[in-house]
Each structure stands twice: as C-alpha cells, then as structure tokens.
Amino acid sequence: MSRPAHRRPEYHKINKDLFVLTYGALVAQLCKDYEKDEDVNQYLDKMGYGIGTRLIEDFLARSCVGRCHSYSEITDIIAQVAFKMYLGITPSVICNNSSRNEFSLILDKNPLVEFVEELPAGRSSLCYCNLLCGIIRGALEMVHLAADVTFLQDRLKGDSVTEIGITFLKKRDEKKYRWKK
Questions:
Q1: What pTM was computed for the model?
Q2: Using one digit for the tens of pLDDT, what is the confidence trace for 120-145?
Q3: Where found, per UniProt (predicted)?
Q4: Is the predicted pLDDT of residue 118 greater than 80, yes or no?
Q5: Which among 50, 66, 19, 73 is positioned nearest to 139, based on CA atoms?
Q6: Pick among 3.30.420.10, 3.90.1720.10, 3.30.1380.20, 3.40.630.40: CATH of 16-116+125-171
C-alpha cells in the first residue's frame, strides 16, 4: 500500500532509554578493546564526527533555520534547536572571550549519563560523552566552520557542571555576508 503524496514521511524515534543503554554498552566495549583512555576518547570523537557529518542534513531539513551571521547565533542554534531536537535538553550558552569565538555549552542534565553513576575504575581520563564533541565538530565542518570542540568539565569526573567548549578557529569575514546594494 502506498503512502498518499501529501503526507510527509514519519521519523521513527527510538526509545531514549534504549539509546542511552546502547551507548553505555558501546563505551564499555571500547574500554575493553582499548587500554588507554585517550584511544577510547579519540574513537568516540571520530565516531561522533561521522555522525555529525550526516546528521547536519537532517537537522537543516527539519529545523528550517536560516543563515547565521555570527558565532553566537550559531552556538545559540546548536543549544536551543539541535540539542532540544535530538537530546531533549537545552544547554545554557556562555561566551568565553571578547573576540566572541569561544563559547561554552553548560548542560544541566546530560541524557547520555542517565544510568551512569561514575566512570569505570582506573578510567579517570575517560571522556564518556566525547561522541557529542565529535558530532558538533562534524556538523560544523559540513557547513564550512572549523571548530575545536572539547569537554571542559564533566560531572562524571566530580565537576559541578558538564561543560562543552566550542572554539571557532577562523575569523569570520563579515564583508562576505553583507548584502550588495
């Protein structure tokens, strides 16, 4: 039976708990496969990067966001639209410098660690949610924005908040975005 032409395809969502548990199993397996935390962190970042490069198309199609004219606009869209759309949370955004190219996303709640109480023994430098950094970096690169994305603080490591730092690496050419008269 075919679908009527006027109906949009439905996006199937998986249960959030299933996703979080599956992610936890992935990280546990990576900890077994790799001795060094740095190798696990790098693998999660690389995996996230691959997801981000593909996820950006879905995000742009579903969110209907327009062109951004500043790094603060971009960071606000990441926090208020993308995180809300895919993780159901809205992090706070803080600008970290006067040149307005360094930002922090403060996550009050991190759904990926919902069932995690602490890092595995002997894994103090493990960045459990490094997948998120790779996703953000990959998505930004697909829209031609080079950025360094890292975890600055993590509640799993005893910090008071979970904070992701985003540093845009190129200065925006403002002349390029001005309308011609």
A1: 0.85
A2: 889 999 999 999 999 999 999 999 99
A3: Endoplasmic reticulum; Golgi apparatus, cis-Golgi network
A4: yes
A5: 50
A6: 3.30.1380.20
